[in-house]
Amino acid sequence: MAQEVRGVIAPGKNEAVRVETIVVPDPGPGEAVVKIQACGVCHTDLHYKQGGINDEFPFLLGHEAAGVVEAVGDGVTDVAPGDFVVLNWRAVCGQCRACLRGRPWYCFNTHNAKQKMTLTDGTELSPALGIGAFAEKTLVHAGQCTKVDPSVSPAVAGLLGCGVMAGIGAAINTGQVGRGDSVAVIGCGGVGDAAIAGARLAGASKIIAVDIDDRKLETALGMGATHTVNSKTTDPVKAIRELTDTFGVDVAIEAVGHPATYAQAFYARDLAGTVVLVGVPTPEMKLELPLIDVFGRGGSLKSSWYGDCLPSRDFPMLVDLHLQGRLPLDKFVTETIGLGDVEAAFERMHHGDVLRSVVIL
């Protein structure tokens, strides 16, 4: 029988979000209903609200979530009712050309639930990133549920579902940061700070945090940065080169998604170094670089999709590292809030006052 729960929707472009009654159907084949315990407030949710993703309003917001599986549909074998899970938005298919080549983190045919959640009047909702977890319960594809150690705090675990995984993965999976490497991270929001934490975890010897906000740079030091550069007052490329004996860094991670900061990352790396773009640009942005510089500097220019993660591999590992005291995921949680506080959390995010607000249900 379908259930009615409370959830946060974005009714229209730039309209204030509101708490509504959401109808969650019983899980069909391959689907699961998850009782949400915590969900982070991510910039992507704000982009949905602003119409920056698409115009399929109304949206059921929220996607950085952890909770307990309540029910599963036919054919589901990997998770069962009672399992504590982190939700992911790239449930791999196992059958596409990327999966069959042994590269499931590039899966080109990821799954979401086929059924729609609705408002009580039957209006279909578009769940953010196929999850929609600013709700007491949500319907997802069972492959979007990744079991992790249930002793971890849901507020911490849920953050692996998007921004934290994207940043850590940009450093470890995409950038392949290794022991003794030098790393620069441009943009020290949640994703950038996670990239810093990932670089530290990988054994980087020098981690240079770059931002225009001294508050964010201070936070970056707590995440593992060894040096900071305020690019509002200092040329970041020059500063990074001075900190690396004029050579530049082995890996430069751009966590802003802007042509100007991408160019900074490009020129701040060493010869044969790697640039990783994990910041998400807007469709109208254009990048212009001298082709001779692209050729002459060598190395790799990479984009990082969701930190090139494989949730079934990476989520449990990162939770274990956190529980061992080796990955300070709790430092990402600035505040905990209720469902009715999401609009105010967006405002605090806009002003850079929080790293992550987390809705507790």
From TrEMBL:
One of its GO terms (molecular function) is S-(hydroxymethyl)glutathione dehydrogenase [NAD(P)+] activity. CDD domains: Zn_ADH_class_III. Its EC number is 1.1.1.306. It is an enzyme of class 1 (oxidoreductase). SUPFAM superfamilies: GroES-like (SSF50129), NAD(P)-binding Rossmann-fold domains (SSF51735). GO terms for biological process: formaldehyde catabolic process. Keywords: Metal-binding, NAD, Oxidoreductase, Zinc. InterPro entries: ADH-like_C, ADH-like_N, ADH_Zn_CS, ER, GroES-like_sf, MycoS_dep_FDH, NAD(P)-bd_dom_sf. GO terms for cellular component: cytosol. It holds the Pfam family ADH_N. Its cofactor is Zn(2+). Residues 12-359 form the Enoyl reductase (ER) domain. Belongs to the zinc-containing alcohol dehydrogenase family. This is S-(Hydroxymethyl)mycothiol dehydrogenase. It comes from Streptomyces smaragdinus.
